[in-house]
Amino acid sequence: MTNSFADYLNTDLFFVIGSNPTEAHPMAGAKIMSSLMNGTKLIVADPRRIELADKADIFLQLRPGTDIPLLNGLMHIIIKENLHDQKFIEERTEGIEDLKAAVEKFTPARVSEMTGVPENLLYDAARLYATTSKAMLCYTLGITEHICGVDNVMSVANLAMLTGHLGREGTGVNPQRGQNNVQGACDMGALPGDYPGYQKVVNPEVQAKFEKAWGVKLSNQPGLTIPDMMDAAVEGKLKAMYILGEDPVLTDPDANHIKKALQSMDFVVVQELFMSETAKFADVILPGASFTEKDGTFTSSERRVQRVRKAIEPIGDTRPDWWIVCEVAKRMGYPMAYAHPEEIFNELASLTPSYGGITYDRIEHCGLQWPCPTVDHPGTPILHTKAFARGKGLFKAIDHTPPAEMPDEEYPYLLSTGRILYHYNVTTRYSSALDAHRPEEAAMIHPADAVMLGVGTGDTVQVTSRRGSVKTKVAVTDKVQSGMIWMSFHYRETPTNELTVNAFDPISKTGEYKVAAVRIEKTSPM
Amino acid sequence: MSISKEMRSDIEERYKRNLERPRIVVGLGTCGIAAGGNKVMDAIKAEVAKKGLDVDVDFTSCIGMCFAEPVVEMALPGRASVVYGGVGPENVVQLIESHMVQKTPVAEQAQIQILGGAEAYEGIPAMEKSEYYEQQVRSVTWRLGRTNPERIEDYIATGGYEGIQKALTMDRIAIIDEIKKSGLRGRGGGGFPTGTKWQFVHDAVGDKKYIVCNADEGDPGAFMDRSVLEGDPHAVLEGMMIAAYAIGADEGVIYCRAEYPLAIRRLNMAIKVAEEMGIMGENIMGSGFNFKVRIKAGAGAFVCGEETALLNSIEGQRGMPRVRPPFPAHKGLWQKPTCLNNVETFANVPNIIRKGGDWFSSMGTEKSKGSKVFCITGKINHTGLCEVPMGMTLRDLVYNIAGGIKDGKKFKAVQSGGPSGGCLPTEKLDLSIDYESLGQAGAIMGSGGLVFMDEDSCMLDIAKYFLNFTQMESCGKCTPCREGTKRMLETLERICEGNGVPEDIDNLERLAKVIKTSALCALGQTAPNPVLTTLKYFRDEYEAHINEKRCPAGVCPELLNYTILADKCIGCGVCIKACPTGAISGEKKAVHVIDPTKCVKCGACVPKCKFDAIAKA
Amino acid sequence: MPNVTLTVDGTQVTVPKGTTVVEAAWKAGAFVPTLCHDPELSKPGACRICVVEVKGARNLVASCVTEAVEGMEVQTSTPAVIEARKTILELMLDNHPEDCLTCHQAGDCKLQDYAYFYNVKPGAFGGESHQYELEDDNLFIVRNMNKCILCGKCLRACEEKQGRAVIDFAYRGFKTKVTTALDQPLADSVCVSCGSCVAVCPTGALTEKAMLGKARKWEIEKIRTTCPFCGVGCNLDLNVKGGKILGATSNPASPTNGRDLCVKGRFGIDYVHSPKRLTKPLIKKNGAFVESSWDEALDLVATKLGEIKNKFGSDAIAALSSARCTNEDNYVMQKFVRAGIGTNNVDHCART
Amino acid sequence: MAGCACTGEKVDSPQDLQLMDLLGHYRGYDGSLIPVLQGVQEIYGYLPAEVLEKVSQELKIPFSKVFGVVTFYAQFHLKPRGRNIIRVCLGTACHVLGNAKVFDRLKDILGVDNGGTTDDLRFTLESVACIGACGLAPCIMINDDTHGRLTVDGLEDILAQYA
Fold first, then answer.
1. pLDDT tens across B440-470, in order?
2. Contact B518 C60 (CB under 8 A)
3. In angstroms, what separates the C-alpha of D24 from chain A's closest C-alpha?
4. Where are the domains of chain D?
5. Poorest-confidence range of B443-447, C237-241, C316-320?
6. Distance between CA C337 and CA C290 in Å, rounded?
């Protein structure tokens, strides 16, 4: 996020695209909802009529996978009507001509046809966003979980730069991170091409720095991303995998492919709290301690590094994850001896410039938002106030990429997936109240489709894609468009990701969870 | 558009010509209609048509003599017009024949005659000399019962919209100064100086300002505002316009209780015609001043008479009062500076601007200037609407205007100011009617409701009645009012049921004090007044109820015992039939007996006994 | 910002302009009770418990909604003030169950504290009291509206903090009640069970269902941590008694969320004590998992990975780190993979 | 606009059409809730729950607040009200004289319970504390008329007087 959650209360307009914050990021959603009570305006772009859509001043119910045409179309109108921020563009950006050329062909009429959004709403949205001084863009996985996810993100950035909605209070491009410590895991270099702090493994200076710090020779070859790992495993190139606190069988696209990958390997270690779907494929399961049983830090979407504190002793014979990993390292001849997570933190801070000024003492009460390079630095609530990371912001000319798989005669329905309020990726199924409240999948289908399928709310259907088939109960609602089915991925009983498509963004390797083609048939109860 | 001199004199001319024609005018205020005025109107029209008389049949609003409704005025050219009371459809034929055809008034049914420079009739009191009107002034109310409120021409012909015309030529501050000079104070109850309030709103900074007219008159026994709205709607509009111009507002809202449909209808008509004539709307009378007004109908909540609750209600919220400060003058409707006055206050304004502040302040007392409209009800002979100069004594009001207590009974108390006011006893009869005197005596001027009680009234019962009202109407927001009035009411009920204990008086006093000092709004702060004043002036009645289990006025059923007086009962058996519970028994022509275990103390037997043989004690 | 100076009980105190009298009084060290007042919510001035005497004012003044002005003379404990506060408390207690002995909120209840402080007992006036049915038919929150003192903090939190306004005042006067549209139970309303209402309730009217009967307030140790259920980074307090987490409550000092949480953060932490937790290392032997010692499991892992590394090279091994684990865990994991195994094959589900 | 929930909905009764007119008239105006509720009550004779929910959506006012307003003002009714309001006195005298039987018989005739309204909206049946006509007990009030000394058999004739 370029800006902070506190800043949500300072904006005059939210443009929420591909994000369902009231369910997936409830406290962010709450801030939006309470701002609306005070007159803040709202544009929502989403294929589903999500809760915020009903509160919106303008709701753009686009077809799944048409974010780029929509965004380009809005920019087309903004440029045509001369509503762009010329001063910002001149002072802070480059490449505007490329952008202008790229969006030229995205006329309102054409965009309306591509997205299904009425032309007048395109005009309304473009004008409102461009002319509101404090306008904030919020997006989430509805933007990134496409094969054109990176292009989608670039388009969002284009729009914000075009209108100068960056680097100020109440503005910005604000992707809310899906999981509690995605930000931190990325910051910590749990990425195949990056050391902590996004220092590139291919950079020899960086390599030298870490070799010195860690006392070993390091590889300068970027590693494999998850999809590549799975492919490599199936191909027999990857022999072993150590999986810490992840459940790719349930949460990664094309689950059957994942299962095959796990089965193909010689040795799989899973470090987990529960017997996850993935753990079942393990050769060794190492029981980890939960976040309540250990000290540490999480880094939130707004780049805030905050304390996790041990409240109780590890349950049973479990151990903190860091301890287990260190033990394995030690036994493999690479001693990593830490008495306490604070020691780990001090080491990582010394190697991660953006964390350089952060200590446990400093984050005792309110955390700190990185970049925080020195111990006297107050942290950074708003990014890019003076310049972008690369200096000038670069407009990228982006063209439309249709989803990898679209409904056809054989698989006539479009499947899209996401989270619901009452569950998280993992663990919530083990909360008695949460699980009792939402014990099973309730796939959303449109009333017209329900009639065609002869089903009503609570009935069971078989949903089948080219990759798998699952049973689910349905909820009939006009919150989804007809021709679409929406499912969450929380339920092992209904493993939705057996259906999703094994297609990834070429750069980020993010799976296209948001669009797949499926067939639906009524079936006997689960 | 403007009302030109020529246009005004033309309208006046026509109005006068109409007055010189044979006329029958029916009082069709809400009270007149309730008493059957419409049926009388129909009968009159039918009779006039049948006889083929050259007579104008018109209507007006309530002249104030509610005790005499339905009221019909008959006038012949050159003669005084005679106001008849108690006219039913059955009287119509005879009245028309006698007055309009034979030109002989029916003196026995005539209440008053209005001279207006014309020749008087013998044997009918002139309005100014009549018992009811002699001590009254007719300042705010003077068009009531005299003009047709649905005709703007009647208003204009009688000086209407001269005030705003004059105001538009004045400096805004000069208008406010004139109001200040008049000494006009809020007629809704608070008595805040109107000019000072206007000054606050004038001085308040805001891109938008509002005028709000409080027409949510909700006190039981009060209908001053209704009468003014029904009888002189344009005067209220004109007052609002003058205020709007003075403070710099361009929008007004009249918040009128929904229970006043006729007032709302007449206001709507008045607004429509005023807009059509260019008296209201854009660029009023060519001055560049814009003003529009709309009506918001209340939805049944007494507390919305409290100004901040009223503003919340206009905004579409629960009518719960806001904390003050900020006062509406600074943050009122939609948080904008708002000038909020009641109907009677606004209705006074045109006269003050036309005639000058000095004219107004020549009436009244040192601190309470002008006149005040009162609704007098209860156990008096003349119930109705009256307007008196500030400073008149209660005694004059009771014994002259009100015609004394009904059935020759003794005056016991008067409740001034409705549920927020207090009960004043005989000792206070010589109290001057003004804000300060009433306040010092523990009552309030209020909006002008006066309920009179005689010796048969139990003061605890009265206090209970008003407390029940405020308790039911409490909005529930603040603890003292919500919980406290409930406990006070329960305590009173216990006492009236004979279950009182001596500590109850202390508890009542403590609750009253805390509610008065700690409640959030004026409704709560004044809710204990009926109890406090009755405790102050009629403490012995409380003590009788508590210590002797006796209701001195013979009202509280649980404390009554009905007995048959052996020396009076002739054994006729009527009471046996009257008794709903079979509690009375006795042989024919033998003295009857009431079985106290069966008697439910409903009192049904008492009026049936022709021999006054049933006693309650 | 300009300051104003006033006296509170004879003590001079200087506060920024715009400060309320109650805040000034607190600053001056005076005790002024409040119930409906909340610094983060709008100010209704409804409960009236905070009344004080201000020189020149006709009535007592609700200090929570009155702005301190220059030269103001405030008295916080005159006989009139004390009488008003005691009476208001008596009125509240007369419409409140006398079950402090078994009330979950005991020990953390403002009504109880003030009643104690002012030595106020129930039953001063008697009379009718509310007899609402206990609402415990949802999974998260128990509502006992008989204990509600109508301070309205719950509905203000619901509207102003969560932007939902699921509840509001309904009816009026003595019958006023905080309820949902159509007076339905929460379970049948649009409530999303965030529990912000519970967090601000000053009495036992609203309680976390899972914690009822588990601990007295004073037995609970609260440990602040960061919520694990999404990327917003809310802070919360783990409520611990006897080495067990009873539940979570919000912590007003939390930078992003204050006292607000969502249903998962407030009511979903119990998964930690799920009997389905893995508590022993497991080794798959003949297709079935068998419990082992840590040494055995760790040695096996080290050995197997070492073998594969030796046989197929470092790049034949990969690791998934976790977006749900701490920074320290992730740092250690990638360091282990890079420095210990010698490959950059480390990734995590950064994209979900 | 997102708020337009009316699209695609089946509109069948003239009341619904009137409702749409009403909402169309007031949509976007500040402070329109109470006039809208008054209008709804005029159209339907009371405030049906589902209409209130629609009002909440269309005016973008939380449903709880709509309900709060409805229950605050005495004018508003959540249940249908008949053209004629029957108030059965439950004072002591009436009670002793068997008004319970009268009440039961009225419930039978009208097919409604206490507080209920007949389907044709002709009558609403309510109970009331003593109306002070004990001499006429057992008695009921219909609108402003008091009917006393009732017998169970005479009730139908009395009801017939009210259309």
1. 998 888 888 898 999 988 999 999 988 998 9
2. yes
3. 17
4. 14-72, 84-159
5. B443-447
6. 27
Closest CA to B140 of B414, B306, B295, B354: B354
pLDDT of residue B443: 87
The CATH number of B152-360, from 2.30.42.10, 3.40.50.11540, 3.30.240.20, 1.10.510.10, is: 3.40.50.11540
Chains A and B touch (3+ CB pairs under 8 A): no
Across the strands, what pairs with D128? D89
Which letter, b or e, does each residue of A258-270 get, where b requires 16 or more Cβ atoms within 10 Å of its Cβ? Answer: bbebbebbbbbbb
Q: Do C167 and D64 touch (CB under 8 A)?
A: yes
Nearest-CA distance from B596 to chain D in Å?
A: 14
For the four alpha carbons of A30, A33, A39 and A43, in that order, the dihedral sign comes to positive
Contact criterion met (CB < 8 Å) for D64 and C168: yes
CATH architecture of structural domain B561-616: 2-Layer Sandwich (3.30)
CATH architecture of A413-523: Beta Barrel (2.40)
Contact yes or no for B339/B201 (Cβ under 8 A): yes
B478, B306 contact by CB (below 8 A): no
Nearest to A291 by CA among A318, A269, A270, A317: A318
Q: How does pLDDT run across C255-267, given as a tens digit for each residue?
A: 999 999 999 999 9
What does the pLDDT read at residue D133? 65
Cβ-nearest to D34 among B316, B475, B603: B316
Which residues of chain A neighbour D3 with C-beta distances below 8 Å?
A: 54
Please check whether the domain covering A182-369 is classified as CATH 3.40.50.740. Answer: yes
Which subunits sit against D, judged by 3+ Cβ pairs under 8 A?
Answer: A, B, C
Q: How far apart are CA C251 and CA C260, in angstroms?
A: 8
C interface with B, Cβ–Cβ below 8 Å: 43-49, 51, 59-60, 62, 65-67, 80, 83-84, 87-88, 91-92, 94-95, 124-128, 149-150, 169, 171-176
Query: What pLDDT score does D2 carry?
Result: 36
| Structure-model confidence comparison of residues A426 and A333, the more confident one | A333
Indicate whether B69 pLDDT > 90.
no
Of B297, B316, B580, the CB nearest to D69: B316
Q: What does the domain layout of chain B look like in residue ranges?
A: 5-128, 152-360, 371-457, 460-547, 561-616
Measured between CA atoms, the residue of chain B closest to residue D130 is B602
The answer to whether B54 touches B103, Cβ cutoff 8 Å, is: no
Where exactly does CATH 3.40.50.740 map onto chain A?
Answer: 182-369
Q: Is the ipTM of this complex over 0.85?
A: yes
D143 CA: distance to closest CA in chain A (Å):
44
pLDDT tens-digit series, residues C173-196: 999 999 999 999 999 999 999 999
Q: What is the mean pLDDT of residues A402-412?
A: 93
pLDDT at B149 over 80: yes
DSSP one-letter code for B428: G
Question: Which of B602, B606, B609, B614 to mutate to test binding with chain D, by most D CBs within 10 Å of its CB?
Answer: B602
Interface test with B, best of D34, D61, D139 (most B CBs within 10 A): D34
Mutate to test the interface with B, among C48, C54, C168 (most CBs of B within 10 A): C48
Encode pLDDT of A181-225 as tens digits.
999 999 999 999 999 999 999 999 999 999 999 999 999 999 999
Whether the predicted pLDDT of A83 surpasses 60: yes
pLDDT in tens, B97-120: 999 999 999 999 999 999 988 899
Q: Name the pLDDT band for D8 (thresholds 50, 70, 90).
A: very low
Interface test with C, best of A188, A209, A225 (most C CBs within 10 A): A188
B325 preceded by cis ω (within 30°)? yes
- Give CA–CA dist A14/A134, Å, rounded: 9
- Indicate the fold that domain D84-159 takes in CATH: Glutaredoxin (3.40.30)
| pTM recorded for the entire structure | 0.92
**Are the CB atoms for B298 and B317 separated by under 8 Å?**
no
